[in-house]
Specification:
Blueprint lengths: L1 H38 L3 E3 L6 E3 L4 E5 L2 E5 L2 H17 L1
Antiparallel strand pairs: 1-2, 3-4
Length: 90
């Protein structure tokens, strides 16, 4: 009986190590891909929250000749509200 428990625990441990190692490799690969996109200029930083977002999937606003990229509509709205507030003060 104890031998079965030990073998079962050993099999569980081996499976756990296999899956954890696979998820670590996947996370490392994703981090490397994101780093490459940032270096290639495909990633841009949201001016409100600082999150890096894929340039092709970002939400944009033109401010004169400058194009700003946002990660969400909430961040875009915060920026617009802040910009409008500054314009009222001037």
């Amino acid at each position: 009986m104890i031998i079965k428990v030990v073998i079962f625990a050993l099999v569980c441990y081996v499976l756990y190590r296999l899956f954890m190692n696979d998820s670590k490799k996947k996370a490392e690969k994703e981090a490397q891909q994101q780093k490459k996109r940032m270096e290639a200029g495909e990633m841009v930083q949201d001016p409100v929250c600082g999150t890096y977002v894929d340039k092709s999937n970002s939400i944009t606003v033109r401010n004169g000749d400058q194009t700003l990229h946002f990660c969400s509509y909430e961040c875009r709205q915060k920026y617009i509200d802040k910009f409008n507030e500054q314009q009222k003060l001037n």
